[in-house]
Amino acid sequence: MSTGLAKWAGELAKGVHGFWEKGRWTPLAISARHRAKIRKETLLAGGEWPYDAPRKPERTKMKGHKVDREAALKRARTVELMEKMPQMLADMKVSHSTCHLPQNLSGLVLLLLMILQTCLVELFPLSNNGSC
Questions:
Q1: What string of DSSP letters covers the chain?
Q2: 83 falls within a domain
């Protein structure tokens, strides 16, 4: 064990950069430069340095734009939908044809229009000369 490590072991054991004491953050009494020098000497001498902060887990989230990452998924979905397109169009035609009047009711609609026209003529008769 190097002399620097023996001298500062108690201070280094308190924390990597400092510690909380009575609800207040207290920095170490040893500077970062001096701490690095002691660490380097200890590791070169073959000693172990247990005072480093634990490593954070590696970042798994990909960088870049979301649009670029999801472009391939969108293209695959488009191909899948294009394969289903003929069936979707047939279903749409069937649903739209049920919304319109069937052929046999078109005569009935014409009859109702004629009745409505005659009622309007009776309610609002034209003057003798035929103008409004």
A1: --HHHHHHHHHHTT-SSEEEETTEEEE-SS-HHHHHHHHHHHHHTT---TTSPPPPPPP-SPPS-HHHHHHHHHHHHHHHHHHHHHHHHHHHHHHHHHHSPPGGGHHHHHHHHHHHHHHHHHHS---TTS--
A2: no
